TrEMBL record:
This is Disulfide bond formation protein DsbB. The keyword Signal does not apply. It comes from Bradyrhizobium neotropicale. It is found in: Membrane. GO terms for molecular function: protein-disulfide reductase activity. InterPro entries: DiS_bond_form_DsbB/BdbC, DsbB-like_sf, Uncharacterised_DsbB.
Amino acid sequence: MTTQSAAAMPAFKSATGGPALTASLLVTLIAAATIAGAWFFQLVLEIVPCPLCLEQRYAYYLAIPVGVLTVLAARSGAPRPLLLAGLAILALATLANAGLGGYHAGVEWGFWKGPTDCSGPVVNLGSATDLLSRLDTVKVVRCDEVQWRFLGLSLAGYNVLISLLMAGIAAWGFFATAKRA
């Protein structure tokens, strides 16, 4: 696209830096710090994640590369629609993750039942000969039992707060970038 056509179509005008860069950089840094913290809890403190905990990490695994790509796009003066797409993906993924974290926290507090694979009774124990050998190697991590709390919140509760913060930052970046002339 030439400079003349970019001037004639303000939506495709490049947006170097600005709120898109700030928002995507903040979301990327928060996501990276959060997933590093999750790994620290798992690998160093030996707090094994339940299946819902692992599912909540997917949004971070998406947010980090999308955030990095959006940062690079903003720094290189990419067209506004590209920046808006990156910020929209970040906002939607982190907002959905806040919903998943809220669901998980509700399971932990006993507000509703969780998935049958990580809460409720154990149904299938397999054969009797395999049972004894598996008891030594398998640790069942239940989604409805909190393994760690700080100030009354579990890790799922903190995930809700962190995800809402990232969604808010990404939404701010989206709307501020959309308004820029």
